[in-house]
Amino acid sequence: MNPAFIITIDVEADDAWRGSADVTTENAAYLPRFQALCEKYGLRPTYLVEWAMTSSPSMREFGQSVVADNTAEIGMHLHAWTTPPFRPLTEADHRLRPYLADFPPDDVAEKVAAITGRLEDLFQVPIVSHRAGRWVLDEVYARVLVERGYLVDCSVTPHVSWPGAKRDYTRFPSQPYFVDLADIGRPGDSPLLEVPMTVVPTARAGWVGRASRAVGRTSLAGRALNRLSPEVTWLRPNGRNRRDLLGLTRTAREAGWPHVEFMIHSSELMPGGSPYFRSRRSVEGLYADLEALFAYVATGFCPVTLAEFHAGISRAAPRS
Length: 320
Fold this sequence. Notes:
Shape: globular
Largest sheet: 10 strands, mixed
Protein backbone atom coordinates (compact mmCIF):
# COMPACT_ATOMS: atom_id res chain seq x y z
CA MET A 1 0.00 0.00 0.00
CA ASN A 2 1.35 3.42 -0.95
CA PRO A 3 2.14 5.86 1.90
CA ALA A 4 -0.20 8.79 2.38
CA PHE A 5 1.26 12.14 1.38
CA ILE A 6 -0.14 14.89 3.60
CA ILE A 7 0.52 18.57 2.93
CA THR A 8 -0.04 20.95 5.84
CA ILE A 9 0.21 24.72 5.60
CA ASP A 10 0.27 26.90 8.71
CA VAL A 11 -1.72 29.86 7.43
CA GLU A 12 -0.58 32.73 9.61
CA ALA A 13 0.34 36.41 9.51
CA ASP A 14 3.27 37.87 7.61
CA ASP A 15 6.62 37.19 9.28
CA ALA A 16 5.14 36.11 12.61
CA TRP A 17 8.71 35.51 13.81
CA ARG A 18 9.42 39.25 14.15
CA GLY A 19 7.19 39.63 17.22
CA SER A 20 5.56 42.87 16.11
CA ALA A 21 2.25 44.04 17.52
CA ASP A 22 1.31 45.15 13.99
CA VAL A 23 -0.22 42.19 12.16
CA THR A 24 -0.46 42.06 8.36
CA THR A 25 -1.88 39.29 6.18
CA GLU A 26 -0.60 40.04 2.69
CA ASN A 27 0.65 36.48 2.22
CA ALA A 28 -2.93 35.25 1.72
CA ALA A 29 -2.73 36.57 -1.85
CA TYR A 30 0.10 34.11 -2.56
CA LEU A 31 -1.84 30.96 -1.65
CA PRO A 32 -3.52 30.44 -5.07
CA ARG A 33 -0.16 29.81 -6.74
CA PHE A 34 0.68 27.11 -4.19
CA GLN A 35 -2.78 25.56 -4.57
CA ALA A 36 -2.40 25.50 -8.36
CA LEU A 37 0.88 23.61 -8.01
CA CYS A 38 -0.78 21.08 -5.70
CA GLU A 39 -3.64 20.59 -8.15
CA LYS A 40 -1.18 20.14 -11.03
CA TYR A 41 0.08 16.99 -9.29
CA GLY A 42 -3.24 15.86 -7.82
CA LEU A 43 -2.25 16.72 -4.24
CA ARG A 44 -4.74 17.71 -1.53
CA PRO A 45 -3.43 20.21 1.02
CA THR A 46 -4.77 21.04 4.46
CA TYR A 47 -4.70 24.75 5.28
CA LEU A 48 -4.45 25.22 9.07
CA VAL A 49 -5.75 28.75 9.53
CA GLU A 50 -4.83 31.08 12.40
CA TRP A 51 -7.18 33.76 13.78
CA ALA A 52 -5.36 36.77 12.31
CA MET A 53 -5.80 35.39 8.80
CA THR A 54 -9.58 35.18 9.14
CA SER A 55 -9.75 38.97 8.76
CA SER A 56 -8.14 38.81 5.32
CA PRO A 57 -10.62 39.11 2.42
CA SER A 58 -8.11 37.24 0.23
CA MET A 59 -7.96 34.36 2.70
CA ARG A 60 -11.73 34.19 3.04
CA GLU A 61 -12.19 34.14 -0.74
CA PHE A 62 -9.45 31.56 -1.21
CA GLY A 63 -10.70 29.27 1.56
CA GLN A 64 -14.29 29.39 0.37
CA SER A 65 -13.11 28.55 -3.15
CA VAL A 66 -11.11 25.44 -2.23
CA VAL A 67 -13.93 24.22 0.01
CA ALA A 68 -16.48 24.69 -2.78
CA ASP A 69 -14.23 22.91 -5.27
CA ASN A 70 -13.32 20.15 -2.76
CA THR A 71 -9.64 20.57 -3.59
CA ALA A 72 -8.34 21.17 -0.05
CA GLU A 73 -9.30 21.06 3.62
CA ILE A 74 -9.53 23.96 6.06
CA GLY A 75 -8.27 23.22 9.57
CA MET A 76 -7.26 25.26 12.61
CA HIS A 77 -3.95 26.66 13.84
CA LEU A 78 -3.92 28.59 17.11
CA HIS A 79 -1.61 31.37 18.23
CA ALA A 80 -2.52 32.26 21.79
CA TRP A 81 -1.40 35.89 21.47
CA THR A 82 -3.71 36.73 18.54
CA THR A 83 -6.79 34.66 19.44
CA PRO A 84 -9.53 36.03 21.70
CA PRO A 85 -10.43 36.29 24.48
CA PHE A 86 -7.43 38.45 25.27
CA ARG A 87 -6.18 37.97 28.80
CA PRO A 88 -2.43 38.65 28.50
CA LEU A 89 -0.12 36.16 30.13
CA THR A 90 3.00 38.37 29.89
CA GLU A 91 3.83 42.05 29.59
CA ALA A 92 4.07 41.64 25.78
CA ASP A 93 2.40 38.47 24.49
CA HIS A 94 2.87 39.49 20.84
CA ARG A 95 6.64 39.60 21.37
CA LEU A 96 7.11 36.74 23.83
CA ARG A 97 4.50 34.51 22.11
CA PRO A 98 3.37 32.33 25.01
CA TYR A 99 2.17 28.82 24.28
CA LEU A 100 -1.52 28.12 24.62
CA ALA A 101 -0.58 25.32 27.03
CA ASP A 102 0.76 28.03 29.39
CA PHE A 103 -2.72 29.53 29.83
CA PRO A 104 -5.32 28.44 32.42
CA PRO A 105 -7.60 25.63 31.19
CA ASP A 106 -10.62 27.93 30.89
CA ASP A 107 -8.66 30.25 28.60
CA VAL A 108 -7.57 27.30 26.48
CA ALA A 109 -11.17 26.18 26.06
CA GLU A 110 -12.42 29.69 25.25
CA LYS A 111 -9.73 30.36 22.65
CA VAL A 112 -10.31 27.02 20.93
CA ALA A 113 -14.05 27.67 20.91
CA ALA A 114 -13.58 31.20 19.51
CA ILE A 115 -11.42 30.28 16.55
CA THR A 116 -13.34 27.09 15.77
CA GLY A 117 -16.60 29.02 15.64
CA ARG A 118 -15.01 31.73 13.52
CA LEU A 119 -13.66 29.27 10.95
CA GLU A 120 -16.89 27.31 10.76
CA ASP A 121 -18.90 30.49 10.25
CA LEU A 122 -16.58 31.66 7.47
CA PHE A 123 -16.20 28.40 5.56
CA GLN A 124 -19.42 26.57 6.45
CA VAL A 125 -17.71 23.23 7.11
CA PRO A 126 -16.88 21.33 10.29
CA ILE A 127 -13.33 22.10 11.44
CA VAL A 128 -11.78 18.82 12.60
CA SER A 129 -8.01 19.14 12.01
CA HIS A 130 -5.56 21.13 14.12
CA ARG A 131 -1.96 22.09 14.77
CA ALA A 132 -0.87 23.89 17.92
CA GLY A 133 0.92 27.21 17.57
CA ARG A 134 4.66 26.72 18.03
CA TRP A 135 4.06 22.92 18.06
CA VAL A 136 3.20 22.60 21.75
CA LEU A 137 0.32 20.34 22.77
CA ASP A 138 -0.44 18.94 26.22
CA GLU A 139 -3.15 16.81 27.82
CA VAL A 140 -5.41 19.72 28.80
CA TYR A 141 -5.25 21.13 25.28
CA ALA A 142 -5.89 17.69 23.73
CA ARG A 143 -8.98 17.15 25.88
CA VAL A 144 -10.35 20.54 24.83
CA LEU A 145 -9.87 19.60 21.18
CA VAL A 146 -11.79 16.36 21.68
CA GLU A 147 -14.60 18.22 23.46
CA ARG A 148 -14.86 20.58 20.47
CA GLY A 149 -15.14 17.66 18.02
CA TYR A 150 -11.62 17.65 16.59
CA LEU A 151 -10.54 14.37 15.04
CA VAL A 152 -6.91 15.02 14.01
CA ASP A 153 -3.91 16.77 15.52
CA CYS A 154 -0.53 17.18 13.85
CA SER A 155 1.48 19.03 16.53
CA VAL A 156 3.88 16.24 17.53
CA THR A 157 7.45 16.59 16.22
CA PRO A 158 9.20 13.26 16.92
CA HIS A 159 12.86 13.41 18.00
CA VAL A 160 12.49 17.11 18.91
CA SER A 161 12.43 18.77 22.32
CA TRP A 162 11.20 22.34 22.76
CA PRO A 163 13.07 23.41 25.93
CA GLY A 164 11.35 26.78 26.41
CA ALA A 165 7.99 25.05 26.34
CA LYS A 166 9.11 22.13 28.48
CA ARG A 167 7.66 19.89 25.77
CA ASP A 168 9.83 16.91 24.91
CA TYR A 169 8.65 14.85 21.95
CA THR A 170 11.85 12.81 21.61
CA ARG A 171 10.22 9.57 22.74
CA PHE A 172 6.84 10.10 21.12
CA PRO A 173 5.71 7.74 18.32
CA SER A 174 6.67 8.79 14.82
CA GLN A 175 3.75 6.97 13.20
CA PRO A 176 0.05 7.86 13.55
CA TYR A 177 -1.80 6.83 16.70
CA PHE A 178 -5.00 7.60 18.60
CA VAL A 179 -3.86 9.44 21.71
CA ASP A 180 -4.31 8.56 25.35
CA LEU A 181 -5.78 11.74 26.83
CA ALA A 182 -4.04 10.99 30.14
CA ASP A 183 -0.66 10.86 28.37
CA ILE A 184 -0.59 12.13 24.79
CA GLY A 185 2.78 10.47 24.20
CA ARG A 186 1.23 7.01 24.09
CA PRO A 187 -1.55 5.33 22.10
CA GLY A 188 -4.98 5.19 23.69
CA ASP A 189 -8.65 4.95 22.86
CA SER A 190 -9.61 8.61 22.37
CA PRO A 191 -11.12 9.76 19.05
CA LEU A 192 -8.17 12.13 18.46
CA LEU A 193 -5.72 10.81 15.87
CA GLU A 194 -2.18 12.16 16.16
CA VAL A 195 -0.46 12.44 12.77
CA PRO A 196 3.15 13.31 13.68
CA MET A 197 5.21 15.61 11.54
CA THR A 198 7.78 13.76 9.45
CA VAL A 199 11.03 14.36 11.34
CA VAL A 200 13.89 11.86 11.36
CA PRO A 201 17.30 11.84 13.10
CA THR A 202 20.32 12.53 10.93
CA ALA A 203 23.36 10.29 10.80
CA ARG A 204 25.23 12.88 12.90
CA ALA A 205 22.49 13.30 15.50
CA GLY A 206 24.51 11.73 18.34
CA TRP A 207 27.62 13.89 18.31
CA VAL A 208 25.71 17.02 17.29
CA GLY A 209 23.38 16.54 20.25
CA ARG A 210 26.25 16.09 22.67
CA ALA A 211 28.06 19.14 21.32
CA SER A 212 24.97 21.37 21.32
CA ARG A 213 24.12 20.34 24.88
CA ALA A 214 27.67 21.22 25.93
CA VAL A 215 27.43 24.77 24.55
CA GLY A 216 23.68 25.16 25.11
CA ARG A 217 21.10 24.42 22.42
CA THR A 218 19.75 27.97 22.41
CA SER A 219 23.15 29.69 22.54
CA LEU A 220 24.58 31.32 19.43
CA ALA A 221 27.10 28.48 19.10
CA GLY A 222 24.40 25.86 19.62
CA ARG A 223 22.11 27.36 16.96
CA ALA A 224 25.01 27.69 14.51
CA LEU A 225 26.03 24.07 15.10
CA ASN A 226 22.52 22.78 14.48
CA ARG A 227 22.21 24.89 11.34
CA LEU A 228 25.47 23.52 9.93
CA SER A 229 24.81 19.93 10.95
CA PRO A 230 21.25 19.44 12.18
CA GLU A 231 20.27 16.66 14.54
CA VAL A 232 17.07 15.99 12.60
CA THR A 233 15.71 16.34 9.09
CA TRP A 234 12.19 17.69 8.58
CA LEU A 235 9.94 17.30 5.56
CA ARG A 236 9.90 21.07 5.41
CA PRO A 237 11.63 23.19 2.73
CA ASN A 238 14.20 25.78 3.73
CA GLY A 239 15.70 26.68 0.35
CA ARG A 240 18.75 24.43 0.79
CA ASN A 241 17.36 20.94 1.33
CA ARG A 242 15.85 19.58 -1.89
CA ARG A 243 18.00 16.47 -1.61
CA ASP A 244 16.77 15.85 1.94
CA LEU A 245 13.12 16.29 0.92
CA LEU A 246 13.46 13.77 -1.88
CA GLY A 247 15.50 11.42 0.28
CA LEU A 248 12.90 11.39 3.06
CA THR A 249 10.05 10.60 0.69
CA ARG A 250 12.10 7.93 -1.06
CA THR A 251 12.88 6.29 2.28
CA ALA A 252 9.20 6.40 3.27
CA ARG A 253 8.17 4.73 0.04
CA GLU A 254 10.80 2.02 0.20
CA ALA A 255 10.17 1.32 3.90
CA GLY A 256 6.39 1.30 3.58
CA TRP A 257 5.66 4.05 6.09
CA PRO A 258 1.93 4.73 6.53
CA HIS A 259 2.38 8.45 5.90
CA VAL A 260 4.69 11.36 5.33
CA GLU A 261 3.71 14.85 6.41
CA PHE A 262 5.03 17.95 4.68
CA MET A 263 4.66 21.43 6.14
CA ILE A 264 5.23 25.03 5.18
CA HIS A 265 4.08 28.43 6.46
CA SER A 266 1.87 30.51 4.18
CA SER A 267 4.15 33.50 4.76
CA GLU A 268 7.09 31.56 3.28
CA LEU A 269 5.34 31.68 -0.10
CA MET A 270 5.66 35.47 -0.19
CA PRO A 271 8.94 37.32 -0.76
CA GLY A 272 9.90 38.96 2.53
CA GLY A 273 7.18 37.13 4.44
CA SER A 274 9.58 35.05 6.53
CA PRO A 275 13.22 34.97 7.65
CA TYR A 276 13.89 32.14 5.17
CA PHE A 277 12.64 33.49 1.84
CA ARG A 278 13.40 37.18 1.73
CA SER A 279 13.53 37.77 -2.02
CA ARG A 280 11.61 36.85 -5.15
CA ARG A 281 14.59 34.82 -6.25
CA SER A 282 14.52 32.75 -3.06
CA VAL A 283 10.77 32.11 -3.45
CA GLU A 284 11.34 30.99 -7.04
CA GLY A 285 14.00 28.61 -5.71
CA LEU A 286 11.45 27.33 -3.20
CA TYR A 287 8.98 26.64 -5.99
CA ALA A 288 11.64 24.77 -7.96
CA ASP A 289 12.16 22.54 -4.91
CA LEU A 290 8.41 22.06 -4.49
CA GLU A 291 8.02 21.16 -8.15
CA ALA A 292 10.70 18.48 -7.85
CA LEU A 293 9.19 17.05 -4.66
CA PHE A 294 5.58 17.10 -5.84
CA ALA A 295 6.49 15.54 -9.19
CA TYR A 296 8.17 12.68 -7.32
CA VAL A 297 5.31 12.00 -4.89
CA ALA A 298 2.63 12.27 -7.60
CA THR A 299 3.27 8.58 -8.29
CA GLY A 300 3.74 6.05 -5.51
CA PHE A 301 1.95 8.06 -2.80
CA CYS A 302 -1.70 8.56 -1.87
CA PRO A 303 -2.52 12.29 -1.59
CA VAL A 304 -4.97 13.02 1.25
CA THR A 305 -5.97 15.79 3.61
CA LEU A 306 -5.71 15.26 7.35
CA ALA A 307 -9.44 14.51 7.67
CA GLU A 308 -9.28 12.07 4.76
CA PHE A 309 -6.34 10.31 6.37
CA HIS A 310 -8.32 10.01 9.61
CA ALA A 311 -11.28 8.55 7.71
CA GLY A 312 -9.03 5.95 6.07
CA ILE A 313 -7.50 4.95 9.40
CA SER A 314 -10.95 4.69 11.00
CA ARG A 315 -12.29 2.50 8.19
CA ALA A 316 -9.27 0.24 8.44
CA ALA A 317 -9.56 -0.19 12.23
CA PRO A 318 -10.88 -3.63 13.27
CA ARG A 319 -14.35 -3.67 14.78
CA SER A 320 -14.76 -5.10 18.26
